[in-house]
Amino acid sequence: MDRDLTAVSVPGRVARPGEGISPEELALAARNHGMPLEALRYGLTPPGLHYVLVHYDIPAAEAADWRIGVGGLVRNPLRLGLADLRSYPSVTLRVTMECAGNGRARLSPRPVSQPWLVEAVGTAEWTGVPLRVLLREARVEPGAVEAVFTGADHGVERGVEQDYRRSLPLRVAMGDDADVLVAYAMNGEPLPPQHGHPLRLVVPGWYGMAHVKWLCDISLTDTPFTGFQQSVAYRYRQSADDPGEPVTLIAPRALMIPPGFPDFMSRTRVLRPGRTGLEGRAWSGHAPVVRVEISSDDGRTWHDAALDAPEGGIWAWRHWHTAWTATPGSHVLVARATDADGRTQPLDQPWNRGGFGNNLVQRIPVVCLPEGT
């Protein structure tokens, strides 16, 4: 670790009691945007509304000059341009992608980093070549255990200068049922710059840190990858010296389109008395969502919402809807999802030092105006 780098790149930390959002966090929030919750009305998120997280800089990338290598423990190394990849049979998958840090800013104490609330999510149709097709053509050696993916974005994090790199176990990367894509299109168009133009990895069911953008290299290794983004970042830790467990699959979550209309600053919702439709989307990377419950009294009582039939395949969120009779006064609406493996969103925060996987239920304060207002 370079001493000069540690002067500008500080260790991870947890906010002090009462500490507000810092200018650095505000700058990150301005740079990385979430999906407006009213965009939950779209089954397919428009690219400009899909959440964005860029660790370093968006690289300058010319599609015509871009090459991706497949090497390491392979018998037939590959060097492919975009035209080469487009010559393979393409696959399109609808995938709900969520940032691992979604919900971090709602934790107490707050881990200091990108201050997501609940909007770091989106669903897109990604088109590309199944990773397993490329790996089979490269003829992976028997001793390989992981595939390491390198993006072209370069920066410093906690004193470590690095390209963004992540790995996947070989069983995830190239199993018969693996749906991992080397993607070159989003919603039928070339990838936008902020979403990885011209190539990115798409790992259905996994949090966003696995979906390496600006993908330029795939290397097969005979030992687990121990780079920063794998062994230091993106781990569930309770303390700084806890080795933790890796962040992988997306925990279940339901989000509601906030009803009524908002106050500009507080975002508190305002509506008038009467029957009001409530709707949203729910998803899980572990198993299909099978139940969504709604509460209008901050979780004291619950009723089931109706789940629409899945659309777009097993990796996409599922639409839910119900109705609520609003009465004058203050209310807190809550949405909670359960998946087929029995995982349910918690009512209390699942705290960890990095603020990862916080799928605490969504709470929406609502003020219903008096009759006749």
TrEMBL record:
<dbReference type="InterPro" id="IPR036374">
    <property type="entry name" value="OxRdtase_Mopterin-bd_sf"/>
</dbReference>
<dbReference type="GO" id="GO:0020037">
    <property type="term" value="F:heme binding"/>
</dbReference>
<keyword id="KW-0500">Molybdenum</keyword>
<dbReference type="GO" id="GO:0043546">
    <property type="term" value="F:molybdopterin cofactor binding"/>
</dbReference>
<dbReference type="Pfam" id="PF03404">
    <property type="entry name" value="Mo-co_dimer"/>
</dbReference>
<dbReference type="GO" id="GO:0006790">
    <property type="term" value="P:sulfur compound metabolic process"/>
</dbReference>
<feature type="domain" description="Oxidoreductase molybdopterin-binding">
    <location>
        <begin position="55"/>
        <end position="228"/>
    </location>
</feature>
<keyword id="KW-0479">Metal-binding</keyword>
<protein>
    <submittedName>
        <fullName>Mo-co oxidoreductase dimerisation domain-containing protein</fullName>
    </submittedName>
</protein>
<dbReference type="InterPro" id="IPR000572">
    <property type="entry name" value="OxRdtase_Mopterin-bd_dom"/>
</dbReference>
<dbReference type="GO" id="GO:0008482">
    <property type="term" value="F:sulfite oxidase activity"/>
</dbReference>
<feature type="domain" description="Moybdenum cofactor oxidoreductase dimerisation">
    <location>
        <begin position="277"/>
        <end position="366"/>
    </location>
</feature>
<dbReference type="InterPro" id="IPR005066">
    <property type="entry name" value="MoCF_OxRdtse_dimer"/>
</dbReference>
<keyword id="KW-0560">Oxidoreductase</keyword>
<dbReference type="GO" id="GO:0030151">
    <property type="term" value="F:molybdenum ion binding"/>
</dbReference>
<dbReference type="InterPro" id="IPR014756">
    <property type="entry name" value="Ig_E-set"/>
</dbReference>
<dbReference type="InterPro" id="IPR008335">
    <property type="entry name" value="Mopterin_OxRdtase_euk"/>
</dbReference>
<dbReference type="Pfam" id="PF00174">
    <property type="entry name" value="Oxidored_molyb"/>
</dbReference>
